[in-house]
Amino acid sequence: PWCGHCKALAPEWAKAAGTLKGVVSMGAVNMDKHQSLGAPYGIQGFPTIKIFGGNKDKPTDYQGARQAKDLVNAGMKLVKDTINARQGGGSGGSGGKKGGSEVIELTESNFKKEVLDSKDIVLVEFFAPWCGHCKNL
Predict the structure, then answer these.
(1) What tens digit of pLDDT does each residue of 16-72 get?
(2) Residue 130 CB: number of other CB atoms within 10 A?
(3) Helix-strand-coil percent breakdown of the chain, rounded to 5?
(4) Which of 6, 43, 79, 106 is flagged as catalytic?
(5) What is the pLDDT of residue 122?
(6) Per the residue annotation, which of 60, 131, 133, 135 is the catalytic one?
(7) Is 134 marked active-site?
(8) Which among 10, 26, 103, 134 is annotated as catalytic?
(9) Catalytic residue (one of 3, 29, 79, 104)
């Protein structure tokens, strides 16, 4: 709270957090009050930005600019990198198959709640179970 660099970052951090809300979570630790949280990560200077991606035990240092647009771009790159890692060569749609996947079966009773009222971006596959193309997805 007393550091000039931290004070300069705060409004940019808030803008970026607002833009990334629901896509990438952004947090802040007051090191005057919670020094023990920074110790495992070697925090010595302020502000220090760490990216807690897939491996939470080994966050990476953020070395980019500290303007909202740059922070948002870094967040979006993290999302893209995470998605690419998850794909691992797998592709294609569901063809309506739910077995062990994260696909939500949409019906008249849940479409409004799961899609129209959701704050998340939702990709919806409209398929016909008898369709050869859908079966191959």
Answers:
(1) 999 998 889 999 999 989 989 999 999 989 999 999 887 788 899 999 999 999 999
(2) 7
(3) 40, 5, 55
(4) 6
(5) 77
(6) 131
(7) yes
(8) 134
(9) 3
Which pTM was predicted?
A: 0.71
Contact status, residue 51 vs residue 62, Cβ threshold 8 Å: yes
Listed residue (20, 5, 120, 13) closest to 78, CA to CA: 20
Active site residue 118: no
- B/e letters for 94-128, b = 16+ CB within 10 Å, e = fewer, are ebbeeeeeeeeebeeeeeeebeeeeeeeeeeeebe
Where is 60: in which H helix or E strand? Answer: strand 60-61
What is the rounded CA–CA span in Å between residue 97 and residue 112? 21
Residue 14 known to be catalytic: no
Active site residue 131: yes
- Determine the distance from the C-alpha atom of residue 69 to the mean position of all C-alpha atoms in its chain, rounded to a whole number: 16
Residue 59: is the preceding peptide bond cis (ω within 30°)?
Answer: no
- Integer CA distances (angstroms), 115 to 83, 122, 124, 127, in order: 21, 6, 8, 16
What is the pLDDT, as a whole number, of residue 66?
93
**Any idea how long the chain is?**
137
- The secondary structure of residue 34, as a DSSP letter, is -
